[in-house]
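The records we work with from here on pair a chain with its fold. Each token is a code from a learned vocabulary of local backbone shapes. A record is reproduced here so that you can trace the correspondence yourselves:

_____
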Amino acid sequence: EIYTLSLHDALPISIYKRYESQAGWFLRPAPPKPIESRIHIKALFYMPDNRIVDRPNLEQALYDILVKYRIIKDDNSRIVASGDGTRVYVDREQPRTEIYIEEYEGEQQ
């Protein structure tokens, strides 16, 4: 496992900016330099309620935040090789995003 961290809170556009800003506090310590190797990212999104959310949009927002805060160098397919296992759940008491980043051990590109 390369890096494990947990983000707290949830999402949408003015809320996204707040989420993005708060994420920086939870994305510490960042690696000494952004991850450039092929990785697998699994994210567990715990939403505050049962509203319908667009999982691909949640993932894209997460990847953009990981790039912004220099956890990963880029979110292109040469680095983020896989996102299997990502799920959306409900946790009214503690909405959050749990992120698991591991070396990708699948076939090479």
In short: The helical segments are 13-26, 55-68. Strands lie at 3-8, 39-47, 80-82, 87-90, 96-103. The first strand starts at residue 3 and ends at 8. The CA atoms of residues 18 and 47 lie 15 Å apart.
